[in-house]
Design goal:
Elements (H helix, E strand, L loop, with lengths): L9 E3 L12 E4 L5 H11 L6 E4 L3 H11 L2 E2 L3 H5 L4 E4 L3 H11 L8 E4 L6 H7 L6 E6 L8 E7 L5 H10 L4 E5 L5 H9 L1 H18 L4 H22 L3 H7 L6 H11 L2 H19 L3
Parallel strand pairs: 2-3, 2-5, 3-4, 5-6, 6-7, 8-9
Antiparallel strand pairs: 1-9, 7-8
The protein binds NADP nicotinamide-adenine-dinucleotide phosphate.
Amino acid sequence: MTESAATPQTTSTDAPGTDLSGVRVALIGAGNMGGPVARTFLSAGVSAENLRIVNSTPASSERAAAEWGATAAASRAEALEGAGVVVLGVKPYQILDLASEIREELPAGAVVISLAAGTTLAAIQQALPEGQPVERAMPNTPISVGEGAVGLMRGSAVDDQQHELVHALFSRAGVAVDITEEQVHAFIGAAGSLSAFVFVILEAMSDEAVRLGLTRNLADSLVQQTVRGAATMLLESGMHAAVAKNGVSSPGGTTVEGIAALERAGVRSGVAAAMATAAGKSREMTTD
Ligand SMILES: NC(=O)c1ccc[n+]([C@@H]2O[C@H](COP(=O)([O-])OP(=O)(O)OC[C@H]3O[C@@H](n4cnc5c(N)ncnc54)[C@H](OP(=O)(O)O)[C@@H]3O)[C@@H](O)[C@H]2O)c1
C-alpha cells in the first residue's frame, strides 16, 4: 500500500515561483484545513477567479469564499468544470463517498489532492476512474501564514509535471516535503498534530506568566515572540536545540534550575507521548 515519489522533493517558500495564474482549482470542502489550503494556493499565484469553493450548502460556499478570498461555485459540477486540480477537503469518513460521487464529473487528467488523514492512495484511486492522478497532502494549520509544513504523497498515476504542479501550489505553505504513506504517521506526530501541542504549551506558558504577575496581553506576546524567536534562531543558524539550550544555562543560574524542574515534571516524556499517540492513532485510523 505504500507509494513513494520516484524523486523525493522539498519545496520551501524560497523556491522560485511557477506561474499558476492559469490553473483552475476546485476545492470541495473549505473548512479548518481546506480554507488554509485555499489561502496557500492563492499566495502561490492561483487567481481568486480560478479557485472555486464548494461546501455543503451554497451559503456555506459563499461564506468560505469570502473568508479565504476565493470564488464560490454554485454547484459541485460548476466547481469541477475545467478544473486542472481538485482538492478534497471533507472529513475522512466522507472522502470515499465524495470520490465516488464526482468520478463521472472529474475532468480527465485533473490532479486530485486528498487532505484526508487515514485514507490511503489505493483506496482513493479505487473510487476514482482508472489512471486519475491522485496525491495525498498532509498539511498543518500554520500553512495559513506561510509557516507550516505539508507532507506530499504521490500516487502511481502522477507524472513528474503534475507532481511539480502540486509542489508549486504548496510553495507558499512554509515547507512541502515528499513523504511515503508509511511516514505519514510520524509526519502527523511531528507536524500535522504538533501545532496543536505547541498551542497547548503556549497556553500553559502564558497562564503561568499571568500567575507570575504579567498582564494577559504582555504574557501572550512575550511567550509567542520567544517561541517564534527560539525556532527562528535554530532555523537560521542550523544550531541544534541542545547546543542552544546549553548556551543559556549558566552554572547555578535561573535557566538550569528551571530546566531541572521541567525535566522532573516529565515535559520531555509528555511531549514524546503526545507525538507517539498521534502517530499511533493515525496508523489505527488507516484503512485500505
Ligand atoms: N484540521 C486539521 O488540522 C487537519 C490537518 C490535516 C488534515 N486534515 C484533513 O482535512 C480534512 C478536513 O478536515 P477539517 O478539519 O478542515 O474539517 P471541517 O472544518 O469540518 O471542514 C470540512 C469541510 O467540508 C465541507 N463539506 C462537508 N460535506 C460536504 C459535501 N457533501 N460537499 C462539499 N463540502 C462538504 C464542510 O462544509 P460545511 O461547513 O458547509 O458543512 C467544511 O467546509 C479531513 O479529511 C482531515 O483529515 C485536517
